[in-house]
Amino acid sequence: MTERDPLAKAEAAVRAAETDTVAVQLALAAIELAKTATAQQHTQQPACQHQQPKSGRTAGEWLAIGGAVCVGSVGAAFASLALAILGGCAAIVALILRDLWRDMQKKR
Domain spans of the chain? Predict the structure, then answer.
């Protein structure tokens, strides 16, 4: 599998997202930077044929990882906000039901 296949798959998955949020735009920018870095890496020839290639990650890979972390962070923020709203609504409903129960007990 070449390096461009995963990038193409990732780009297609991001473009298929239904909402165009800042997180999706950030992920698209990270993918574009990764493709540019990969293209530049393929065009450059090493100065010495005897040198071993680096085993670390490329800048494009780090940008893609950073973009994925940002998208995940935005998703976690929305999930925690939804849980906070749900908890507040549940507390309000519990208080109302408790008040109704006390009123019904006083009438008996």
Answer: 4-45+57-107
